[in-house]
Amino acid sequence: MRYFKTLVGKECIEEIISSRGAALYIVGCGVLSVFSLLLVSNTELSLLDNAQAVYMMSAIIIALALLIAVIRGSDGFAGERERETLETLLITPVSSNEVAIAKLMGLIFSWLIVFVLSIPYLWTLGSTGQNLISAIIYLFVAGTLLVVIFGGFTLALSARMKTLKGTLSIGLSAFLLSGSPILLGPSLRQSTVGRFVDLINPFSNALNMLDSVVVDSLGVLFQIIPLAILVFYTIAAIWVLSMAAKRVEL
Amino acid sequence: MKKYVALCIGFMMAMLFVVAGNSHAEGTPFIQVSIQAPTGALKMGDRPVFKGVVKNTGQRNLQGLVVYLSLVSLKPGHEHPVDLEDWSAQKAVRIDQLVSGETNRQDWPMRLIQAGRFGVALTIVDPLENRPIVSDLVSFKIQPKPTVASGRILPVAIGEPLLLLIFFGLFHWIHTRSRRLIKDVQIQELLHERKL
Questions:
Q1: Is A43 in contact with B114 (Cβ distance < 8 A)?
Q2: Mean pLDDT computed over every residue of chain B
Q3: Which of A220-224, B18-22, B41-45 has the weakest average pLDDT?
């Protein structure tokens, strides 16, 4: 347990002390700044209700967190393999499952940093409107579950695939595919295919949940189905990761 | 003979009256069109509905009339026609048939996305006529309404990345400096041991 704790600590601290981690957060902050400035400077966007602006900002925050999770998740095992440190890591007195869980916790830690950094932006956009607190709570819940889902699947890929490039390209493609709700817009999601994709896509479920909470002010009862779908994917991602971690490619 | 001359003059005068009457009928508009702005103060972001009325005041039935909305900015010194792209989803209406004496009413919903003084008018095009008919220009004023507090966003949007940059910069500087110090101490210890 002591070694596991050390490993978790190392994964989290690496986030702050590595220049790559710092660059990711600074760029992420820049993205949020540009988007929030766009919200006030664009004539049409500036007419949005505060709640609508908060919802849009939440969607961008989630997309940013997932992008970071996919990039870091791809690096999880594949990066160690390329830096030739994977074998050393696997002969330490921690099981490969514990290594995988520690790496997943590192991803959750990086999500927490993004979440904390995003709160001032949400506050400036939504403090004069309704549902800001609900938005922050649901963003935290949905973001955490999504980071575990995307991070878990990418880490599993990283454990089984030999190259970082391959893992990263598959992870980013999956991210783009699931990010279609943001890319396509609401009109294309009204068709039967669009609705089906919405139902099975965890990203869409998280966005729909935020939409109904922040914009439509609906209660917890209306969030049971999207939450259940997200929890189902989370359990599936953890299971897939533990299966993949048992057979890590060297 | 005088009788014939008087009859001819009378006939010619009657013809002149008929011609004059017809030309008078051509000059009067056979369609009346008007548009009404909603009452009350208008502000940015509102979605008021302008009411349009088209009445066939002529003798013949009209078919295939096209009614379209025009918006113009009346800001002094910056008068210009406004593209309705973002303002209105409904830019034109086709009236299939308007029988003599009939009135057609339309709703023109608009989304007010800019503050200032504007004028709106309806134009009707009858495919059988070569002159469109335009309603009176109805002017209205839109008050500005900032929904997102722009004054608060700027400090956060600029300040947070800057603070983060300073924090990580300092952190890395201290981290690298302490590592270098440790290395220096180790080297000095090693040198000291060798001297001994």
A1: yes
A2: 82
A3: B18-22
**Chain A window 125-154: which residues touch B at a Cβ cutoff of 8 Å?**
125, 127-128
Calculate Rg over the CA atoms of chain B. Answer: 38
Q: Quote the DSSP letter at residue A218.
A: -
Judging contacts by C-beta atoms under 8 Å, the chain B residues touching residue A39 are 148, 153
Mutate to test the interface with A, among B150, B156, B178 (most CBs of A within 10 A): B156
Hey, is the C-beta of A187 within 8 angstroms of any chain B C-beta? no
Split into its structural domains, chain A has a count of: 1
Q: Where does the pLDDT of residue B22 fall: very low under 50, low under 70, confident under 90, or very high at 90 and above? A: very low
Do B113 and A47 count as a contact with CB atoms less than 8 A apart?
yes
CB contact under 8 A, B172 and A39: no
Helix, strand, coil percentages, rounded to 5, for chain A? 85, 0, 15
- Which residues form the domain of A204? 2-246
Tokens representing B119?
Answer: 């004028």
pLDDT tens digits for A21-73?
A: 888 889 999 999 998 888 777 656 556 667 788 888 999 999 999 999 999 89
* Cβ within 8 Å of residue A186, ≥6 positions away: none
Predicted pLDDT of residue A230? 94
> What's the sign of the alpha-carbon dihedral A90, A94, A98, A102?
negative
A48 touching B (Cβ < 8 Å): yes
Write the CB contacts of A5 (distance below 8 Å, at least 6 apart in sequence): none
Cα separation, B177 vs B60, whole angstroms: 94
Residues in B touching A119 (Cβ below 8 Å): none
Q: Model's pTM, two decimal places? A: 0.68
